[in-house]
Write a structure and sequence with these properties.
two-stranded antiparallel ribbon; 3% strand; mainly alpha
Length: 119
């Protein structure tokens, strides 16, 4: 009986050690599936259109900054509180960095394909 318990404990221990690794590998795939199935694409496009104030199909850096600041102001939460405590030049630097992360080709504007404001 002790051997059966020991084997069970070893299996549970292995599962406990491997489950974060397995979930880590599956997480992005599951996230992409959920994104495709739950209408998030529609929400993402709606937020893109809201940020694209002049409706030219592109989000300029100024449009992005205005959108991000408005979202931060209306969202509340820890992230918004931390952002609001930053000096204005640090806020601008964070927004510029985020814009650059999304504008991977360096074209100076964002398209719907680039638009991932939550990432």
């Amino acid at each position: 009986m002790f051997d059966a318990f020991k084997e069970f404990a070893i299996r549970i221990g292995a599962f406990a050690l491997l489950s974060p690794l397995i979930l880590g590998m599956l997480g992005p795939a599951l996230s992409d599936m959920a994104f495709a199935q739950d209408g998030s694409g529609d929400r993402r496009m709606a937020s893109f259109q809201a940020a694209d104030v002049n409706h030219d199909g592109r989000i300029s850096q100024d449009e992005f900054e205005a959108f991000a600041r408005a979202r931060m102001a209306s969202s509340g939460g820890m992230r918004a509180a931390m952002f609001s405590r930053l000096a204005p030049e640090d806020q601008k630097a964070r927004l510029d960095e985020k814009f650059a992360q999304m504008d991977t080709s360096g074209k100076g504007y964002l398209t719907p394909d680039d638009w991932h404001p939550q990432s």
